[in-house]
């Protein structure tokens, strides 16, 4: 079984890092370390070492803790094959379907997903427990009530393909662990487009009831399908379609899934 610790870094970009431990073996991985001192303090408090670092992609805010942790713990740094030259201390590429922190029986592990779009060197990690997906660590591919941008080395059409082929298919019960806390701002965008979405209104009320920078809502994909506009474009309401058309200035905009997704991504870039 995997033990998951979410670490809010209090960085300007509101990054999350994650420390995950396989309870059967004691092997530990850190996903996207931002602050090596913060992560080292947690590991020392728990008397854990750090076997691996996984960087979901090459952007500095997801790799800035690599050097300090590698020097202190001698961790092996794993990342997308296309990130081997740009991720600090990268030593081993990860291929689709590779497993990390697998228990001896092969029932509990993290499975590598190749997820280009935000960049072309992006991976996500799917948690499997007893042959069932239970959570996914999404870096900058999927956020609470949003998806990643493509401004720094990505492509929105590739991002759409990744989201539609991989994430639309995940069960409702899978928990979402993103690389940043953008929930409230993303909900504001969702309500800006579709103020009639009662689920988004309720989600905003819940989010605003959390202690700022101390409490965080771990949504699941069932919840995301109620208020994340990038998931709602698969079966859009009339009010969402109207909002997208009005905000884009394209009153004759087609309502197929791909067109709505790409238009949403463009609108979010400018919002």
Automatic annotation (TrEMBL):
CDD domains documented for this protein: hydroxyacylglutathione_hydrolase_MBL-fold
Domain Metallo-beta-lactamase, first and last residues per copy: 14-180
Example GO molecular function: hydroxyacylglutathione hydrolase activity
Pathway: Secondary metabolite metabolism; methylglyoxal degradation; (R)-lactate from methylglyoxal: step 2/2
Annotated SMART domains: Lactamase_B
Alphabetical UniProt keywords: Hydrolase, Metal-binding, Zinc
Reported cofactor(s): Zn(2+)
Top enzyme class: hydrolase
One matching Pfam family: Lactamase_B
Cleaved signal peptide residues: none
E.C. number: 3.1.2.6
Membership in a protein family: Belongs to the metallo-beta-lactamase superfamily. Glyoxalase II family.
Name assigned to this protein: hydroxyacylglutathione hydrolase
Species of the source: Leptospira fluminis
């Amino acid at each position: 079984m995997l033990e998951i610790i979410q670490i809010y870094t209090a960085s300007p970009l509101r990054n999350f890092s994650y420390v995950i431990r396989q309870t059967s073996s004691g092997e530990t991985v850190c996903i996207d370390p931002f602050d090596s001192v913060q992560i080292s303090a947690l590991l020392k408090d728990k008397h854990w070492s750090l076997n691996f670092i996984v960087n979901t992609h090459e952007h500095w805010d997801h790799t800035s803790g690599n050097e300090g942790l590698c020097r202190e713990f001698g961790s092996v740094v794993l990342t997308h094959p296309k990130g081997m030259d740009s991720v600090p201390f990268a030593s081993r590429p990860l291929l689709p379907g590779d497993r990390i922190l697998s228990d001896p029986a092969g029932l509990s592990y993290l499975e590598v997903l190749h997820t280009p779009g935000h960049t072309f060197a992006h991976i996500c990690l799917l948690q499997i427990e007893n042959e069932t997906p239970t959570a996914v660590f999404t870096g900058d591919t999927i956020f609470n009530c949003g998806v990643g941008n493509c401004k720094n080395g990505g492509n929105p059409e590739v991002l759409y393909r990744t989201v539609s082929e991989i994430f639309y298919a995940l069960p409702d019960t899978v928990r979402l662990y993103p690389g940043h806390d953008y929930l409230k701002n993303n909900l504001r965008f969702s309500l800006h487009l579709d103020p009639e979405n009662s689920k988004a209104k309720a989600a905003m009320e819940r989010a605003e009831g959390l202690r700022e920078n101390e409490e965080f809502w771990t949504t699941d994909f069932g919840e995301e399908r109620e208020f994340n506009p990038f998931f709602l474009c698969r079966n859009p309401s009339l009010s969402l379609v109207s909002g997208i058309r009005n905000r884009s200035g394209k009153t004759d905009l087609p309502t197929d899934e791909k067109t709505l997704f790409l238009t949403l991504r463009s609108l979010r870039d400018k919002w």
